[in-house]
Design brief:
By secondary structure, the protein is of the alpha+beta class. Helices cover 19% and strands 42% of the residues. InterPro entries: ATP-dep_DNA_ligase, DNA_ligase_ATP-dep_cent.
């Protein structure tokens, strides 16, 4: 049974508020799990059936064996740090051969971080406040190393975010404890990213779609193509010809004379910035 998920809106700063619970934001993919008459079905955020991708989630540790629908995030943890790594999950998600999937599920199983229960014992729980659904989830589901109930804190968002910032997790989600579960974006859930910041030099630009090549100390950092206002792009293009050093089919290369301020949430395994956002030129 697929139920459309509730989605967070983005917020910029952490806060304290007793009306909210605060959870770490897991660097993975949204996953809804349905257990009905002993059969497990897994669904992506958009309702795609992905049951065959994660056979290690076929045994749900429900204490009384009742039917239920869970909401959470599936992730792969780095063996050395225990932190989620989205790139590794992408590799797993792209597997299609059943033998490859079975081997991967044994060699390095995914982890399912459960933060909500939408149905239990034949009852639709979505009209209940989140605090009540959390209490039912704690009674219904055991942790077993693969299934993990996601930890949360009531009220103290700033302290939670500081812990997240200190250890380097992706961010935090704030949820109204007194609200029902509503599909889509309502403002009841807020995602607060743990941004890092950097000053990078522009060493070229991609022609189509437009994006700046950025570097630090001569090392490539990736392509900056998010949140670039038209006025900044036009200002850059106005002096790009004077700075140009070469060109190929896809890129124009320039002297790294212009510095940009960027923010980002994480780096790839190769050390590149993941989806950096432009904040302005450094003058």
């Amino acid at each position: 049974m697929y139920l459309p998920p509730s989605l967070p809106e983005r917020a910029e700063l952490p806060f304290d508020d007793e009306r909210y619970v605060f959870e770490p934001k897991i660097d993975g993919q949204r996953l809804l799990l349905s257990l009905e008459n002993g059969t497990v079905r897994l669904y992506s955020r958009y309702g795609r059936d992905v049951t065959g991708l994660y056979p290690e989630l076929s045994r749900v540790p429900v204490r009384d064996g009742s039917d239920l629908v869970l909401d959470g995030e599936v992730a792969m943890l780095e063996p050395d740090t225990g932190f989620p790594r989205y790139e590794d999950l992408q590799i797993r998600f792209r597997l299609r051969k059943e033998l490859d999937i079975r081997e991967a599920s044994v060699r390095r199983p995914v982890h399912y971080f459960v933060f909500d229960v939408l149905r239990y014992r034949g009852r639709d729980l979505r009209s209940l406040p989140l605090a009540e659904r959390k209490a039912i989830l704690a009674e219904a589901l055991d942790d077993n190393g693969v299934f993990n109930r996601l930890a949360f804190v009531r009220g103290g968002g700033r302290d939670v975010f500081e812990s997240i910032r200190r250890i380097g997790l992706e961010g935090m989600v704030a949820k109204r404890a007194d609200r029902p579960y509503v599909a889509g974006r309502t403002g009841d859930w807020l995602a607060i990213p743990n941004y890092r910041f950097a000053n990078l030099r522009i060493s070229g630009y991609r022609k189509d779609p437009f994006g700046w090549l950025v570097e630090r100390d001569g090392e490539a950092e990736g392509v900056l193509d998010r949140n670039i206002p038209a006025a900044y792009r036009q200002a850059f293009q106005g002096i790009a010809k004077e700075l140009a050093t070469g060109e190929d089919r896809n890129f124009v290369y320039v002297k790294p004379a212009i510095e940009a301020r960027v923010r980002y949430v994480r780096r790839t395994k190769a050390g590149r910035l993941w989806e950096p956002e432009f904040l302005g030129f450094v003058v």
